[in-house]
Amino acid sequence: MSTSFTRRGFLGLTSAAALGAGLSACTGGGTSTGGGATQAASNNLRLFTYEDDSTIGLLKAQVKKFDEQNGTTTTVDSLPGSGAAVYPDKLRTELLGGKGPDVWRIWGGQIGSPFAKAKQALDLSKYYDKYGWDSKLNTTAISGMTFDGVKSGVPFVQLGLGAWYNKSLFAKAGVSAPPTTYAELEALNDKLVAVGVTPCGLGGKYGWDIMRLFEYLLEHTSGPELHDKLLTGAESWDRPEVVEAFTLFKKWQDKKWLPQGALALDPSDVEPWYVQGKTAYTIAGQWTEAGAILAAKKSPAGFGNFELPTDKSPARHSGFVEGYMVNAKTGNADKAAALIDFIVQPAAQKAMNITASTVKGAEPDPKSLPLSAEWSQKYGKNGFYTIQDQAFPKKQADQYFSVQSDLLQGKVAPDAASKKMQEIISAWAKS
Amino acid sequence: MATTVAVAKQPKRGGRWSPWLFALPALLVYVGFLVYPAVSSLWFSLTNWDGLSATYKFVGLDNYFKLPHDPVVVTAVRNNLIWTVVTIAVPTIIGLLLAIALNGKVHGKPILRLIFYTPAVLPLVSIASIWGWLYNPQYGAINSFLRLIGLDGLAQPWLGQDSTALWAVMVPAIWLRTGFPMLLYLAALQGIPNELYEAATVDGATKWQQFWHVTMPSLRPAHYIVIALSLIDSFKVFDMIYAMTYGGPGTSTQVMGTWMYFNVFQYYQAGYGTAIAVVITLVAIAVGIPYVRSQTREAS
């Protein structure tokens, strides 16, 4: 056998192996069937969620109750931590692998939408009729999990975002009450910086956390009507109100109202900083009472919350819904729907400490969750604008985060950022 | 008298199919887990599949034509090149220097070897988290140390600005990847016969001349292994970038691997993402073949 043949053969094999290894890393099984045939019916269910250690035990306890009453065995899997950045990928991979969960938790809007549009999520209309969810759940929340007219999810959480603050740090800055106007909020920030406290704790690693500040500023400069039109692409982003919002956004960083190097900080690290005394406040929803304050064994009395003042009427805050979907390929659709109905009962919602339930009669308990109850009473009835990472598809949201990043680094000016945003949104609207 | 020895020809069991029968189990695994997915991926790169739906359309080479117009692809290619050069050159040189140092008369050699190699066995996500904390602009050890020694001006948001983010991620990558070449070089150094150095000394060679004319030529096989493995490691970079910066700030630290992942798994553009995977693979092969050719030429 000649040497050249051996070498060629070796090269061929090496190339084929490299080609195979490189490409096979991309699609795994390479199936295009979206997870294969319907699974066989059984008494075994699997629920996939993203609860963290502070709440997963409560969910499991309720699921166990359901199992005892229905003769089922339900496995609860959780992927806590990175929020909407990673969880949908894992879910999608499971579904394509044909071993997807029977029930999964998911955010509404553009995060849940791909699962409904790809028909991976079951149309739950008949179960809405069977269990009367239309009359038991908040109507706005249901619309957040209805895609192209199909009810593909059952919302059980409708969260509003506001400022959650550390009272002792406000007192250190000589502030006794939350701000009621944007000017007062800026004045508060200056006072906090003057006493060495970073005002607002947000982290930009995944883009969505620091976005909460910009969307608030956009509501402040644009007002409700224009803001809603901007989110749907009905109005151009290349306009003075958006330029002003970007200008203020940069101001927040330049005046050190955000942590140093906020763009790279992990939100899961930064969000509890207001509880740890490293920042004065953060922008979060009611989950932070159980997830940050109570988890740190701190008394809620040391903290407070307020709706960020927009100076516009009606006053609104950022909000989003979360709920459950059922696998379109499950062989246990009836049992999966029954499990969801069990979970959205007021008793179960209260037992799970759901701080912003969509279920009528499951309002937060003022004794165990005083701050969440206070938020619900004060601001729960106010309208909300769709949180921006649910308003845009993931690709456009990432492009938008990229614009934020360039602006904060001084690579683009506010007016250029507005123009860039308009390019992104108009390209999306055309697609 | 001539004696003839007749050697009876043994009948072959299974005939010419025997080698294939022995190879069959491995071939089945190879075809099932490598060839089939690879061909599938190649096919999907010619479609507009979203990665989730049951249906898709054939779009020909459209996904490939889009690549040069994607500004993030340009950034990713540039980052891949920088990453490849730096994370091959620096760990290899440091690994070689450490190996030479440890090959001499050094106290506590096993402990030092362990210390230098330990990063290579740590879980990568843990390394990313640890370095993420070290780089924290306000509370991280790196900036705290700089402030402590009066170099406040050098304290930076290392991962939070385009100008430093990629370089900051490369530091733990180098830290992680230095131990492996060190071990390989150390083993190779211990295999060089002492007589070569003795002869060189007799001939009047200086230490520097011994290094270049005895040590380096003797390390050639080790160089091949180190560089080949480093090249593969560098091309497939994904995890460190994903865990430390998520491709940001913005898209400034995107590499082809992460951009492929974002498209396939997050943007529901599996066809386009798979086209990126095909290009990565072809580039890796194009770069790898000259190296393999030179290696086989040396061996023959």
TrEMBL record, chain A:
Q: Which SUPFAM superfamilies match?
A: Periplasmic binding protein-like II
Read off the InterPro entries from this record. Answer: Bact_solute-bd_prot1 (IPR050490), SBP (IPR006059), TAT_signal (IPR006311)
Signal peptide start-end? 1-20
Question: What keywords sit in the KW lines?
Answer: Signal
By its UniProt entry, which Pfam families does this protein fall under? SBP_bac_1
So which domain of life are we looking at? Answer: Bacteria
Q: What is this protein called?
A: Carbohydrate ABC transporter substrate-binding protein (CUT1 family)
From TrEMBL, chain B:
Q: How does it sit in the membrane?
A: Multi-pass membrane protein
According to its record, what are the GO cellular component terms? Answer: plasma membrane
User: PROSITE patterns, alphabetically?
Assistant: ABC_TM1
Can the keyword Coiled coil be found in this entry's annotation?
A: no
Query: Which SUPFAM superfamilies would you find in this protein's record?
Result: MetI-like (SSF161098)
Q: Which residues form the ABC transmembrane type-1 domain?
A: 77-293
Q: Which CDD domains match?
A: TM_PBP2
On whether Membrane is a keyword of this UniProt record, the answer is yes
Name the domain of life this protein comes from. Answer: Bacteria
One GO process term, biological-process aspect: transmembrane transport
Pfam families per record: BPD_transp_1
Which UniProt key words apply to this protein? Answer: Cell membrane, Membrane, Transmembrane, Transmembrane helix, Transport
Entry's localization field = Cell membrane
The regions listed as transmembrane in this protein's record are 20-39, 81-102, 114-134, 165-187, 224-247, 267-292
Check the record and name the InterPro entries matching this protein.
ABC_transporter_permease (IPR051393), MetI-like (IPR000515), MetI-like_sf (IPR035906)
- Which family is it part of? Belongs to the binding-protein-dependent transport system permease family.
Which PANTHER family does the record match to this protein?
Answer: ABC TRANSPORTER PERMEASE PROTEIN, INNER MEMBRANE ABC TRANSPORTER PERMEASE PROTEIN YCJO
The protein in question is named: Carbohydrate ABC transporter membrane protein 1 (CUT1 family)
